[in-house]
TrEMBL record:
The chain crosses the membrane at residues 20-41, 53-71, 83-101, 107-125, 137-157, 169-189, 221-242, 248-267, 288-307, 313-336, 375-394. The lineage of its organism: Bacteria, Pseudomonadati, Pseudomonadota, Betaproteobacteria, Burkholderiales. It is found in: Membrane. PANTHER family: RIBOFLAVIN TRANSPORTER RIBJ. It is a multi-pass membrane protein. It comes from Comamonas squillarum. PROSITE patterns: MFS. Signal peptide: none annotated. It holds the Pfam family MFS_1. InterPro entries: MFS, MFS_dom, MFS_Riboflavin_Transporter, MFS_trans_sf. Residues 16-399 form the Major facilitator superfamily (MFS) profile domain. Keywords: Membrane, Transmembrane, Transmembrane helix, Transport. Its main location: membrane. This is MFS transporter.
Length: 399
């Protein structure tokens, strides 16, 4: 039995999913994952503390929050192809400028520009692009996109490390800029054009499911608030780990080599969990996937707290398994609950609180790690508890 049965996809949907997925894998690697590898070298070169690099990165994350709703509305109106192509140019420009910064002010300005590109070009934009093309049948595409995205850190961290040690951090930025222009811009240019917006969502939706009336959506404010709260807590956990996971594992007693090796398991674990979710739970409401996945975060924290360095591998695997499914849920749960009409704009609004907490996560969790060492795990436990409570308060409505 194939993993993704052909009959579950519209014509051309598999190829489009692969293009969007590859675009996400390389775009995440060329921007979001850069500070974890380059912050030290950049700080030393510019004569500033690495914490200032993460402060500039937080500015980019705040810009993502402001950009998301606007980008989503544009995709709802015109489709994702032109917007994703524009973000490739913005990414390339931002990375080229980053390679030339000499002052702290220039650093913050360039990360502001990169935040604009990330807000309009990462997961939410890819999800909205797929939904605009395939309606509610986009659930399989969202899973496929995240399968590629799950390998972003696994690919980019070693590659960026090699570029850093072989040539330097400025040259590493230029290489990633070239990837945006020479690989991703032509890739996104080959995406299909979105159908005319004049078609009703029921007509454009291969599943034939009519969109929820606007009045019904206005009456679902509580579900929207609970979803936004869940996503905010989950993104805080995920961003904290993407910024500080090797350091957290070393605080537990693991050597630097063991910490990096364990952290490298996160990507494959995320991909494995997404495949398992699709195989075993694709007919279930995404809310059940979310409720199951959120349990992985406290399990990971308890394993590291109780086992110390020997629990580093368990922590990385458990975190990867839970985070992998939750990344899919962020795309599929709003689609299942509210329909495809207006998905991009709604998704952008839902992610504003998540982007805000994401912007604060590198600094706040880094501070907790400095002050409390392994006690910082309580911060993650609190965030997981908030997400779990919100998910259990939601009801699996489907339109």
């Amino acid at each position: 039995m194939p993993l993704f049965p052909a009959h579950s996809f519209a014509p051309g949907q598999v190829l489009t999913t692969c293009k969007l997925g590859l675009g996400q894998m390389l775009s995440w690697g060329s921007a979001f994952y850069l500070p974890a590898i380059l912050a030290g070298a950049m700080g030393e070169s510019l004569g500033i503390a690495p914490s200032r690099i993460f402060a500039a990165f937080s500015v980019a994350l705040l810009m993502m929050a402001l950009t998301g709703p606007v980008a989503g509305r544009l995709i709802d109106r015109w489709g994702g192809r032109p917007l994703l192509m524009a973000t490739n140019v913005l990414f390339a420009l931002g990375l080229a400028l980053l390679s030339q910064v000499q002052t702290q002010g220039q650093l913050f300005a360039v990360w502001w520009l990169l935040g604009l590109a990330m807000g309009a070009g990462l997961y939410e934009a890819a999800f909205a692009t797929s939904v605009r093309l395939y309606g509610k049948a986009a659930r399989g595409s969202i899973v496929g996109i995240t399968l590629f995205g799950g390998f972003a850190s696994t690919l980019s961290w070693p590659l960026t490390t090699w570029l850093l040690h072989s040539w330097g951090w400025r040259e590493a930025c230029l290489v990633w800029a070239a990837v945006q222009l020479l690989v991703l811009l032509p890739l996104h240019a080959s995406l299909p054009h979105a159908p005319a917006r004049a078609r009703t969502d029921a007509a454009a939706d291969p599943a034939g499911v009519p969109a929820a009336p606007a009045a019904a959506l206005r009456g679902q404010w509580l579900s929207l608030v609970l979803l936004a709260l869940t996503f905010a807590a989950i993104w805080f956990i995920g961003t904290s780990m993407m910024s500080h996971l090797p350091r957290l594992l070393m605080v537990s007693g693991a050597t630097a080599t063991a910490a990096v090796a364990a952290a490298a398991l996160v990507g494959p674990a995320q991909v494995a969990s997404r495949i398992a979710d699709y195989v075993f739970l694709r007919r279930a409401h995404p809310l059940w996937s979310a409720r199951i996945a959120v349990i992985a975060y406290p399990v990971a924290a308890l394993a590291l707290a109780l086992l110390g360095a020997s629990g580093a591998w368990v922590y990385a695997l458990a975190f990867g398994l839970g985070n992998g499914i939750m990344t899919v849920v962020i795309g599929t749960l709003p689609l299942a609950m509210f329909g495809a009409q207006g998905y991009g704009h709604r998704q952008g609004l839902l992610m504003v609180p998540a982007r805000m907490t994401q912007a604060s996560a590198p600094f706040l969790f880094g501070l907790a790690l400095e002050q409390w060492q392994l006690g910082a795990l309580w911060v993650l436990m609190l965030a997981a508890s908030i997400a779990g409570t919100a998910l259990w308060c939601l009801r699996p409505k489907q339109v």
